[in-house]
Hints:
Helix content: 10-25%
Amino acid sequence: MKKITVIIACICAALCLLSGCAKKVDYLTYVSEKRTDIYLYSNDGLEIKIYRSEKETPYSADGVKGEMSALTEIFVTLPENCDEVNVKAGNIEGEMNYRAVENCYYLSSSGGEIPNSNVEVNLSYGGNNQTFTAISVLYDGVISCDEAVKCVVEHNADLFASLTQNNVFCGEIYVRLLYDDGCYYYVGVCDRNKKITACLVDGERGKIIATREING
């Protein structure tokens, strides 16, 4: 009986090989950056923007996915520059760094957490100590990061097939939520030569709005 079972197993394996049976590649496992939410506040020249993400560490656009970790980034723009700006959001707090190019203050945390809903942000700057509510840009009907990636995989089937060898995807994928009077996704496919195929995806319909290639 045991011998017959072994024979049957061998036959099934052979049939799978002959019929081209292959494990389907899960491209979501090759995502090396995922921005899942954005929180915004704006009034009287004061702006707060918070990104909630997962990102490989160290970050490198080399077509190879690294270890992922949670990342929260806080950007603050003030009506006038201050010598010192401190922020607290959830259990993330600290002094912010000034970025001259963007003319804003910045703090990032790979270990802190913020609420999944709206975020209370306390700012201390120029003798002021105020609390603001940054509101999530997500609304009913917006697709997820994973769904945005799946739309791009379907739309660019030939690209993904060309980068897949022996059921291994030779590249990495970035997916970032964007907001501009509505939600969109940037999905970038980076190969081992650092060439990126970038797609802009409608955040509700999953439709590819634009595609371009960027050579690294």
